[in-house]
Amino acid sequence: MSEATEPRSLEQLLEYLKETRGVDFTGYKRPSLERRIQKRLQTVGLPDYEAYVRYLDARPDEVSLLFNTILINVTSFFRDADAWQYVASEVLPLIIADTRPEGQIRVWSAGCASGQEAYSLAMLFAERLGVEVCRRRLKIYGSDVDEDALNQARHATYTAQQVQEVPGELLGRYFERLDERYIFDKELRRCVIFGRHDLTRDAPISRVNLLVCRNTLMYFTRPTQGEVLSRFHFALRPRGALFLGKAELLLTHAALFRPLDLRWRVFTKAGTEEAREPPRQNPGEETVVKEDLIPNLVLETDPVARIVVKADGALAMANERARTMFRLSRADIGKPLQALDIARRPVELRPLLDDVTSHHRAVTRKNVSWTAESGETHTLEVNLVPLTTARGELTGVHVSFTDTTRFRELQEEVEQSKRELETAYEELQSTNEELETTNEELQSTNEELETTNEELQSTNEELETMNEELQSTNEELETINTELRLRSDELNEANALLRSILAGLDVAVIVVNSDLTVLAWNHRAEDLWGLRGDEVQGRQLMTLDIGLPVEQLGQPIRTLLAGEKPLAEAAVECMNRRGKRVRCLVTGTPLSGASGGIRGVILLIKEEPLPS
């Protein structure tokens, strides 16, 4: 099937499952989804998705097998033990302290698979509160879309291999061994409720103190992850905690969650910090200053350019920075503003002044471009503030010109860095999730391989029988190999003899095949025409730029290749590599092939000096 058809057929399969089985996989990442479905197609021996849809119609039981393949139920008790240790020592005390003494503690294990994660949480709370208190106060909701996995979780029985990650003291305290199975404590089991829940479609469980969803988000696309995280944000209490898998960072969802500990992937809801009271100033620390001198000195030395325009439009004040920037002098004080260049540059002030005086409100113009005398371009923020008396009468307008050039450059650099950082975070998280997804698939495959190992052991006896046959065949191959080495040695000796013969001839030898491609070129030919053998081998004789008039030899050679008369000795005038004209005697003989036909021509060229 072509690449253009395959994705469309995959989408049709996903829509089919959504409409007929009520399971929506459209929010899952396509690479992982395709790998899992292709694995099922290979198992049942079908070529494409369209054939598989027909197969599902004919065999309803195949759907559950497909779901088990897609939904990789890779889980274990206390998976990533260090992260669970952090939850036990740091997160659970915060959750318990944030709950009323007899208040209910609600925990949600989303994507719980066969229940190990939910029972791990129950054991941690029981260690801190006791089983009796957990019976009264603790509710753990385990959810998943895989009904088969949920049925296993409800039974709460596990094999010795499945409980091997449970610490010994917890295993003895919370599990009862029955034959080769381990049964979870029945009293504590009553705190755990399992139910089917689709994170992409169903409403979330609300008022949750702790939400655990480990290595589930990584299977979803970015938009679907955002939708699920919004539901998680709604589900959590204000100081609730979210515990994710090691591949899930939430670096691009800072508006919803902030990290409690990024290393262990524990987060809490953003924006729930209690407001802090601003520090109060001690009135005794206020300094009394002279009111007639300080304001003038402050305005004059202010690094921000400032001017004051009276109500009648005259310039009332310009500090040192304004005079330097806009080429004003103290003599300009008292002149009408319209008579000065600052009224028009860097911004047209008249309409702004009219707006301020008419409405008695401050006006701001940002990102005003201004070119200094040095030729440098600056960005200014112009602020106009009305100056009024206690009775509300307008006495003038205060105009400030704040240089925001560096701020704007830094802001642009920060925005650019932020965009690059977000892109890098998304790529990192996507790569991390894909790596963890592949790891879980490999772990699932490893479990399948362990099951297959038993079949391989029974096959091993057959292989041992075949091995004896192969050993016998190997001995025959070694005998043949010895013969081949002998033949190879003979061939090497023949090639060495041929090279020695060609080197020993005092005439130039050129061997061509039926296409007139050069096969051999001895040292005398090199000396005569100035081209080495490795330069001409594989090239057409008729295209070589040498002193030999090859066009005169073309027809006789083709005649010889056709099996007609051999090329008799022909005398041609040539130019050797030294540029000297010489006379050459050319003789051609056919080169016989293994089947007896003519496979090429051997040209013998003897150089003779021209008669003087």
Care to describe what's here?
Mean pLDDT is 84; it is low at 1-7 and 274-291. The longest helix has 100 residues, at 405-504. Helix 1 runs parallel beside helix 3, helix 2 (30-44) crosses helix 4 and helix 6 packs across helix 7 (131-137). The strands form four sheets. Strands 6-2-1-7-8-10-9 form a seven-stranded mixed beta sheet. Strands 12-11-15-14-13 form a five-stranded antiparallel beta sheet, with helices on both faces. It is an alpha+beta fold and 612 residues long. The protein starts with a helix and ends with a strand. Strand 11 (305-310) and strand 12 form a beta hairpin. The radius of gyration is 45 Å and the shape is flat. The chain has 18 helices and 20 strands. It has helices at 5-21, 30-44, 49-58, 62-70, 81-97, 116-129, 131-137, 147-155, 168-174, 186-189, 222-235, 294-301, 320-326, 349-359, 405-504, 523-529, 533-536, 550-561; strands at 105-110, 138-144, 157-159, 175-178, 181-184, 192-196, 208-213, 236-244, 257-261, 266-269, 305-310, 315-318, 363-371, 377-388, 394-403, 508-513, 518-521, 567-575, 581-592, 598-608.
Briefly characterize the structure.
By secondary structure, the chain is α+β, with helices and mostly antiparallel strands.
Estimated structural class: alpha+beta
Q: Can you tell me the CATH topology of the largest domain?
A: Rossmann fold
Number of strands: 20
| Beta content | 15-25%
Rg calculated over all Cα atoms = 45 Å
Level-1 CATH class name of the largest domain: Alpha Beta
Biggest β-sheet, characterized? 7 strands, mixed
Number of helices: 18
- Average pLDDT taken over every residue: 84
CATH superfamily of the largest domain: Vaccinia Virus protein VP39
- Neighbour order of strands in the largest sheet: 6-2-1-7-8-10-9
Based on CA inertia axes, which overall geometry fits? flat
Uncertain segments are: 1-7, 274-291
Helix residue percentage: 40-55%
